[in-house]
Amino acid sequence: MYSEIRSIMLIAAAVLLSACAAVGPNYRAPELKVPTEWQAPQAGKSADVNAWWSRFQDPALSTLLEAAQQENPTLLKAAAAIEKARASRSAAESGFLPSVTASAGTSWSGSLKNGTGTGVTTGATTGTSRSSTAGLDASWEVDLFGKSRRTVESAGALLQAREADWHDARVSLGAEVATTYVDYRGGRLKQKYYEEQADSQAKTAELTALAAKAGFTAPADARLAEASAASTRSTALAQQGECELLVKSLVALTGLPEASVRQTLGADIRALPVPDGLKVTALPADLLRQRPDIVSAERTLASTSALIGAAEAEKYPSFSLSGSVGLSAATGTSLLAPWSFGPTVSLPLFDGGKIAADIKGARADYAAARAGYQQVVRDAVKEVEQALVRLDSVARQEEEAKKSAAGYRAYVSATEANWRVGRASLLDLETARRSAIGAEVTLLDLQQSRLEYWIALYKAVGGGWKSTSGEATRMAQTVSPAPAGKEGELK
């Protein structure tokens, strides 16, 4: 009786101990030093980042973006990673529950009877009996020092990281589709300008050839004019080839048939989309709660921190309860039902330094993840600052380019008026027209660059990604800097 009471007390003590705090560091997001405000100049109007693509007011772009989000291999791969992480978390949670196995079996036994005097076995049997068994085994390891809790904590954080990776892939995909689309629209416009410039140079070559034939100019000038026209035609053809390559890229990004992509783009040459401006009004620290790649890096850091505790738990005793009950019966015997139940305690005494090495490795993984998190944050701030600088620079260049293009257009109009009254030659008019076309191409390059920088800024601020699920909301909250402690300190 005394031994049974002692066993019950041991079991109760073990259950109470299982409520103790898990060993290992309690994770807190590291406090990172970031600027209190953006240093680069701001440009554009305030806009809601979440609905940014709709501000392009371009149905073709909206169609391509929607198609790209459907069956893109990158997104499918990221979704599969989420499912794998979810399965890993479920597997880790199973450590809290007991394991139960059942078994059953039946066997027959007997002996073969030999033939008389012949030494040959006849195959007859004698003394046949049957025995049946059934059993149930159960075991439960009590989570005394939090190994299972830390493992579940790590798996849960890793699941949140994979969810953020999916959002990051979605943002990157949208930015890539939009950039390719803008390049295509700009390329078609440049092709048009180059073709117009080639036509103008062809006319100049004709006039120069006539002048050379009449002896008013050197034959070399006529050759030079022909060469310039051929060079510009070559540039136009090269630009046409680049546009074809961009169509192939859109096919690969969206998964649509090429005929559908071409139908969406249209055969006509369209102007570049003109979206509303985007102004970054959030503070740099708020960026940490908006970029999914930063959330992923922080959640990965939390996962590695929890694995330190799981490794340290191996240093301490483990306590498990196990029991079994079985049924057995044989021919001619009564039914038996043996059972057993009892606690088991194991303590690692010597392992050749494996546990210490595992703990050291887990801490090294945490240090690497912390450095990776710091780098991602620094890169994020750099990308926003650089995008703002580029936007400001190209905006100021665009203003000057607009003045230049307007001036050249006015000069063409004046030259054409003089040509009509005989005050300017056709050669002067074509030269003025080519200068105007060159100014228009320069302005187009700046407008295209500005759109691409807007897209880069959209991506740099996280693409307007916001959490919708409870886990994703927790991801955003845990990125906030810790109220105290050194950077990346483990408590």
From TrEMBL:
GO terms for molecular function: efflux transmembrane transporter activity. InterPro entries: MdtP/NodT-like, OMP_efflux. It is found in: Cell membrane. PROSITE patterns: PROKAR_LIPOPROTEIN. Gene3D superfamilies: Outer membrane efflux proteins (OEP). Residues 1-21 form the signal peptide. It comes from the Bacteria. NCBIfam families: outer_NodT. This is Efflux transporter outer membrane subunit.
